[in-house]
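Chain A, query sequence.
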Amino acid sequence: MMYLQPNKLALGGVLAAEESAPNTEEYYEILDAPHKEIIWFERSGHNPWVTESAAFVDVVVNTVLAGTQPAR
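Chain A, predicted structure.
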């Protein structure tokens, strides 16, 4: 069985409503996690999995899944 470690990853589109980016960055600053990261999709709004699907899949496979570890 695979478990995600208590890391936090925020995925967001830069073209989302103007208030989204500051809210995401504010949340990121107060978040307490062993590893945290914000990944911005430069040509997306609220749905980067649609507008930048190849980049989104790349992040999921190479960042999210790569960060999983088998249960010990």
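The longest strand covers residues 8-13. The mean pLDDT is 75.
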